Amino acid sequence: MARGGFPGAGGMNMQQLMKQAQQMQQNMAKLQEELAQREFSASAGGGAVKATVNGAKLLKALEIDPDCVDPEDLEMLQDMILAAVNEALRTAEETVSAEMGKLTGGMGLGF
Predict the structure, then answer these.
(1) Residue 94 maps to which CATH number?
(2) Average pLDDT, stretch 26-38?
(3) Does residue 37 sit within a domain?
(4) 41 with 55: CB under 8 angstroms?
(5) Cα–Cα distance for residue pair 29/81, rounded to 1 Å
(6) Is residue 43 part of a domain?
(7) What is the dihedral of CA 95, 93, 27, 10, to 10 degrees?
C-alpha cells in the first residue's frame, strides 16, 4: 500500500480524495443556488389557475382567472389552487432530484 493511501482507493491518496470531495461540494452548492432560482409552473382547471414555484420550493406566483371565480363554489377554486401548486412543487422536486443525481452520480445523498 502506498504511503497515505488505503486499499480500494485505486491508488489515490487521502489528499486527492479530499480535493475531489471539496470540488464536488463546490459544484453542489453552485447547482443548488442555480436550481433555487429556476421557476416551475403548473396550471389547473384548463388554465384557470396557474402556480409558479422556485427550486427552493417557495410559491412565487399564483394567477387566477377572474372568470373562474364563482362565489357559490369556492371549493372548486380551492381544489384548482391546490392542484396547480402541488403539481408545480412536484415538477420542481423531480427536476432538483434529477439534476443533483447527475452531479452526485447516484451516490444517494438525499437530494
Answers:
(1) 3.30.1310.10
(2) 91
(3) yes
(4) no
(5) 32
(6) yes
(7) -90
- Tens-place pLDDT, residues 40-67: 999 999 999 999 999 999 999 999 999 9
Calpha distance 92→52 (Å, rounded) = 10
SS3 52: strand
Domains in the chain, number: 1
Mean pLDDT score of the chain: 86
Instruction: Name the residue type at position 109.
Output: L
Asked whether residue 71 is domain-assigned, the answer is yes
Q: Which domain holds residue 61?
A: 14-104
| Strand ranges (E), the chain | 39-44, 49-54, 59-64
